[in-house]
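User: Hi! I'm working on a homework problem where we have to compare a predicted structure to a textbook description. Could you give me the structure for the chain below?
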Amino acid sequence: MKTSSISRLARVMVAVVAVAACVLAVSCDKTHRYSGSVNQEAVQQISFYETYELGDIANLLIALSGEAAKHNAKSDTVTLVELLNMPDIAIISELENVPVVGYVLPADTAAVDSIITQYGERLPSDLKLAWSFKPVDRGSSYQGPESYELIALRTSNGQPAMSGEYIEKATSEYDEIMGCLVTLKFTVEGSRIFSRVTRANIGKSIAFVVKDKVYCYPMVNLQVDGGSVQITGDFTEEEAKGLVDFIYGK
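Assistant: Happy to help. Predicted structure tokens:
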């Protein structure tokens, strides 16, 4: 990969992180809400995860890629690193706080899953790799098709930092500046847990995950004590409404 391409990819990865955010206190013009209780089976499939930074595991992924290629008899095998479109190791340090380990074409996600399933025991036991919930547009500076992001989540004894069971209410809203978003209100206990999680991860990313798909992975700039959070994931109005419908079991 040429240096100019590497630097461009680095800028695009950082730009995507800046777009995928969860924020607080935005006034909205339209809302979609339900008055009943959330569906407990649905919210159990929602989680907030701490994350790894790419630099923490890049060398491990490269080693895993080489191991997988060594055991594959085909000389023309595409390596995991190539499938992930990972930037060169020399510039990974530029991608501070980025939990995205690669951008994968839709046709290649099954191949990545297969390699990780076969050789994943070489990765940290608290690492969970998860796909973005839909392909992302990598920006005008990158000429190519949309790709799925592969995000590095960090577990604690196999569990997320916080479960969605603490979600008390959800609404979808539209803001003229931020577009479509979903507001989640936590229970009292959930507010305490979320405050503690955000305090422990200032300067790092927390991922919002639904049914093992990552909707966003914002960087935490400050401890969140308000008891609610607003999720943006480049939603369409239908996607935002659909997430609220899912939370209420509709």
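For your comparison, note the following. Helices lie at 3-19, 40-43, 54-70, 80-84, 109-119, 188-200, 237-247. The first strand starts at residue 22 and ends at 23. Good luck with the assignment!
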